[in-house]
Design a protein that fits this description.
This protein has 338 residues and is α/β, with parallel strands linked by helices. The chain contains ten helices and 15 strands. The strands form three sheets. Strands 3, 4, 5, 6, 7, 14 and 15 form a seven-stranded mixed beta sheet that branches. Strands 10-9-8-11-12-13 form a six-stranded parallel beta sheet, sandwiched between helices.
Length: 338
């Protein structure tokens, strides 16, 4: 089978293509013919050594993918050959809070999806909704689950409230799609007229041009009659965090999804940012298998189709990484594997 491996921290050019023997599933493992894999921001950080969790040397990259089960171990009970599956970002985290003993990530501490065949323990796998293509399903484990948890944690959101998303990256677009089917008003920021139009096409109610309006938080507050939004899904920090706080209502919730960047940055919050705010700030680190299963049920029930922006071939993996890094996407950048 064809593979890509990352020898160690360096650059995108250090990702090595090769061929290997097809693996054999152990007693509780699934052998999956990978069909598609998608890139997340953490995958860029892993290549440069900026990710908080050190990657295993020579790891097969990418946490997110989808494919068809073509072989099973003798003890497998949850799946059969022919099932269409994806896998949890944290393959050993099934439910409850994240604990030290289940800290393991596909494409980081264990082999991921950038190979023609992958081995996944059946405990990590989830069947994908029937209406999704493999490329669409490859958007679910990281960006999809992160968006889902940002919106659905207890007490986070009710229908009729207003959600602010920043930019048009994979998490922001997925958050907008989910928030709309939950009955919420969605405001988004972008600097592109073309992307603003696409945001409106997926149901976003208001779009703020942050290039034309550098103090975009004021425009967001104006669009809410001065009250501010009920939930900010903060994907662009640290630099944007002060404005996110200023755009939020007094008792808003702010889901802070990013504080690690390719270059170290500091979060700066002034007294003015904090004055008058009783906002609750919390973090999400994707989620567990139970969260992925809940997302898949919602996606199936509402026939949601994750947005795939660009698709690359398996031999174009490095070009796909560069495109994700340099070109700005509307939704997911996907690599078709087979």
């Amino acid at each position: 089978m064809r593979t890509h491996r990352l020898p160690g921290p360096g650059s995108l050019d250090d990702i090595v293509a090769g061929t290997e023997d097809m693996p054999t599933p152990g007693p509780t493992q699934l052998l999956i013919k990978a069909k598609a894999a998608s890139i997340n921001r953490r995958d860029l950080l892993i290549t440069t050594g900026r990710y908080p969790l050190p990657a295993r040397p020579d790891v097969i990259p990418l946490s997110d993918g989808a494919g068809e089960v073509v072989g099973i171990g003798d003890a497998v009970r949850r799946f059969s050959v022919g099932d269409r599956v994806t896998a949890s970002y944290w393959p050993r985290w099934i439910s409850g809070p994240l604990r030290a003993e289940v800290i393991d990530q596909l494409g980081c501490t264990s082999d991921g999806w950038l190979a023609e065949y992958v081995l996944i323990d059946e405990a990590a796998a989830v069947c994908i909704p029937d209406h999704l293509s493999y490329a669409e399903a490859a958007a679910l484990p990281c960006a999809g689950v992160t968006a889902w948890n940002a919106l659905t944690r207890p007490g986070t959101l009710t229908a009729g409230q207003t959600v602010l998303v920043l930019g048009t990256g994979d998490v922001s677009v997925f958050t907008a799609q989910l928030a709309k089917v939950m009955g919420c008003r969605v405001i988004a920021t972008t600097s592109s007229a073309a992307k603003a139009e696409r945001l409106r096409e997926i149901g976003v109610d208001e779009v703020v041009d942050y290039a034309a309006t550098p103090e975009w938080s004021k425009e967001v507050r104006a669009l809410t009659g001065g009250a501010g939004v009920d939930l900010v899904v903060e994907t662009q920090g640290p630099a944007t965090f002060g404005q996110s706080l200023r755009a939020a209502s007094a008792y808003a919730k702010i889901c802070l999804l990013w504080v690690v960047s390719e270059k170290p940055e500091a979060i700066t919050i002034t007294e003015d940012d904090l004055s008058g705010s009783l906002a609750t700030i919390w973090r999400e680190f994707v989620g567990n298998r139970s969260d992925l299963e809940a997302l898949c049920r919602a996606v199936a029930a509402h026939r949601i189709r994750p947005i795939v922006d660009r698709v690359f071939g398996f031999d174009e993996a490095i070009a796909a990484y560069r495109s994700y890094r340099d070109e700005g996407s509307f939704g997911k950048v996907v690599i078709e594997v087979g």
